[in-house]
Amino acid sequence: MEKQYETNVDSRLLATVRQQWVERQVERERHYGRYIDDIHQLAAKLPKEMKEKLPGDILSRLAASLLDGTVFQIVRELEEIQQLKERNLLNRRMKILSKQKGRRTELDKRHRVAVHAASASERATLKLQQQEEREELDSELEAETTQCDQEIILALDQLLTEQQSTLQRAGVPLMFVTNRSEDIRLQMQVLEWTQRLAAIGY
Questions:
Q1: Contact 62, 193 (CB under 8 A)
Q2: How far apart are alpha carbons 100 and 95 in whole angstroms?
Q3: Which of 5, 41, 57, 25 lies closest to 197, judged by CA?
Q4: How far, in Å, are 74, 92, 102, 164 from residue 87 at the CA level?
Q5: What is the biggest distance separating any 2 CA atoms in the chain, rounded to whole angstroms?
Q6: Rounded-to-integer distance, Cα 27 and Cα 5, Å
Q7: Among 23, 38, 22, 31, which residue's Cα sits nearest to residue 66?
Q8: What is the pLDDT of residues 12-28, one digit of tens each?
Q9: Average pLDDT of the chain to the nearest whole number
Q10: Which contacts qualify for 102-110: CB closer than 8 Å, 24 or more apart?
Q11: DSSP structure class, residue 54
């Protein structure tokens, strides 16, 4: 006859653990129900073509991904990182524009001094030379601004890729690395819902 396994764990402790587990499951179900109801209400307000791309199973998966609160925390942190990155990029651009303004001001000052010092017969030729110099500077500064803007776009694209990858690893539906505007619109909708639900708090 086989010996029955006997545990040394206090039966009251086991009962408490079981009760806590049941309570957690009930709480999860309650949160899931609220999330799914709210998500369906938000989805109902979308245009028809977008609704068709967000079927019920996607909405259910989104609600399930929010249950432990990790996704809310990730989205908050990604938002903070994005705001910091955007501020840094904007400050960098503003510094470049400020420096360019200084160069234009300095050039204008130098031109005025040169015109004032020139004789009447020299002024017409001098003004043509100064116009060429101004156009060269404008062209140089425009190229500098264009390069800065391209670098900003690349940095923001890289940030988007990192966000998509992070949220995909967190199990958020519709999150994957893409540059298709249609996919990104859906992803932005999912993020907006997540932020709204985080603000409600249950």
A1: yes
A2: 9
A3: 41
A4: 20, 9, 22, 21
A5: 124
A6: 33
A7: 31
A8: 766 666 766 665 665 67
A9: 89
A10: 103/137, 103/141, 104/137, 104/141, 107/133, 107/134, 107/137
A11: S
Residue type, 122: E
CB 62 within 8 A of CB 39: yes
Per DSSP, the three-state class of 128 is: helix
Which residues in 58-78 are b (16+ Cβ under 10 Å) and which e?
bbbebbbbbeeeebbebbeeb
Q: State how far the alpha carbon of 75 is from the alpha carbons of 57, 71, 159, 166, in Å.
A: 22, 6, 13, 9
E-state strands within 136-190: none
Please report, as a single letter, which amino acid is at residue 128.
L
Which one-letter DSSP state was computed for residue 168? H
* Residue type at position 98: S
SS3 52: coil
Predicted pLDDT at 3: 54
Which tokens is 118 given?
């020139």
What is the Cβ-side half-sphere exposure of residue 170, based on CA atoms within 13 angstroms?
24
pLDDT at residue 162 in the model: 97
Dist CA 198 CA 79 (whole Å): 13
Task: For residue 54, give the nearest of 165, 166, 164, 173 by alpha carbon.
Answer: 173
